[in-house]
Structure formats: structure tokens, C-alpha cells
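Appendix B. One record, verbatim.
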Amino acid sequence: MSKIFKSNQRYYYVIKQNRIMKKVIFLMLAITMSLGLISCSSDDDNTSNEPQFNIVGTWKVTQIFINGVESDVNNYCSYRGTFQFINPNTFVENGFELVENNCTAKETAAGTWTKSGNSYTIANVTSTVLPATFTPITTTSNISKFELNLSAGGIPTRLIFTKQ
């Protein structure tokens, strides 16, 4: 009888170990799956690994279209300067002007800039090229360029700015 009892005791011990192992494996599987679901949450879908446009830096007009026709930027003195957007919110324009048929550097103009949504506002400075408030047109494929559509003397003008 003692052999049967020991045999049954070992049998129950093995069954109990199997049940514990099944619970441990199930618990490990549940933890792994929940971690996998957390790491694939929907907020990851809204982020992009693509670089984002940043206006901070020095910009120069590299292309100009007047009435839809491309023109040589060098033919327009006021578009030869550079435009610097410096943190924290300082704007500097190194512009040019036509003086006695010569394109000459004019006094540096400085002011401030702010961003609201996708629009930028320049304050405390009179810019010869940039309007007081503008929304640059950008693409994610080339964040080192932006364009502005404006009216220069009533003529539709499109300026392409390139980061220097």
C-alpha cells in the first residue's frame, strides 16, 4: 500500500508541477502580448520620421517667377540679400537697393519674428521682400527650401528661398 501511496504522491506532484508551468508560460505569453500591443499604440502612427521644416537659419531668394515666368534673380536688386531667422525670435535682413543704377548693400535691418500655426510674423523692421505676415509653402521632400506667393506692385510673384 505504501508503494501505491508513494506512486500516487509522485503522480500528483508531477501534475501540480505541470499546472504551475502552464500558468507561468501563460503569464509570460500574456505579458509579452500586452507589451507588444502597448508598443504599437495608435499615437505612433501620427509621428513622422521625416525631417520637419524649421525657419531658423539664413535664407536667400534663389528663384523668382513673375507672372508665372522664371526670371534671373540677379536682375532684381532687392532679392539679392539674405534673411536670417535667429533663435530666440530675432530677424535680420541684409538687403540690397538700387542706387544710381548700382545694386548696393543697404543698412542691415533687424527686428523680431514669431510663429503662429504655419504663419510667421516679422515685427519692428521694414523688409523690402518679406511681407509682415507670411505662410511659407514647403514640402517634406525638400525642407531646405520654401516659397512665397505675393504681389509685387500688383504683379503675381513667386519667390523660392533656399537655406544657406
